[in-house]
Amino acid sequence: MTSAHAIGNDSLVSHAFNGDGSLLAVSVNTSDVYLLHVPKSPGTKWQIVDVLKEHTALVTGIDWAPKSNRIVSCSADRNAYVWTKQSDGKWKPTLVVLMIDRASICVRWSPLEDSFAVGSGCKLVAVCSFDQELDWWVSKHIKKSFKSTVTCLDWHPNNAVLACGSSDFHMRVYSARLKSGDSQSAWGNHSSLGSLLFDHYECEGGWVLGASFSADGNKLVWTKHNSLVFVADVSDTSPSRGAKCGPAVVTCYRSEFLPFISCLWVGPNTFLCAGYDCCPYAFRYSVDGVQFVHQLDVKDQSKVSEKLTAMKKFQDIDRMATTDNTSSRLATIHQNCINELRIYSGDRKMASRVSSIGRDGYLVFWDLPSLCKQISQLSIS
Question: Hey, what domains does the chain have and what are their CATH numbers?
Answer without folding.
Answer: 11-307 (2.130.10.10)
